[in-house]
Amino acid sequence: MLLNCIVSSSFMNLLREKSEVQRIAIKEDFKDEQIHARHIVMDKGGKILLDRGLDIFQHYEMNDTFSFDNHLQKFRPCKAFEVTYMEDNT
User: Fold this and answer.
1) Bigger pLDDT: 44 or 5?
2) Cα separation of 87 and 44, whole Å?
3) Which of 5, 58, 60, 63 is the least crowded, having the fewest Cβ atoms under 10 Å away?
4) Cα angle at 11 between 9 and 13, to 5 degrees?
5) What is the rounded distance in angstroms from the CA atom of residue 68 to the CA atom of residue 88?
6) Could you tell me the residue ranges of all domains in the chain?
7) CATH T-level assignment (fold) for domain 2-86
8) Nearest-angstrom CA–CA distance, 24 and 26
């Protein structure tokens, strides 16, 4: 899978390390540092377009030890966003 976004190398190293535990291989390719669009190209040919990138969650209090949304992602409110999947039929 090709992740096309601008992130720090330390973030990508940590993401790769955690993904390998789940047997998910991530290869990043930085083609244009000025690009704002974010998408994921699947190794089987499909493409996922993310209009917000991975910034989909509304603000939540990260220092509240007893807050469910702090520990469980399914309780975090999301911002409005769109995901488009394009299948490559070539």
Assistant:
1) 44
2) 9
3) 63
4) 70
5) 39
6) 2-86
7) Endonuclease; Chain A (3.30.870)
8) 6
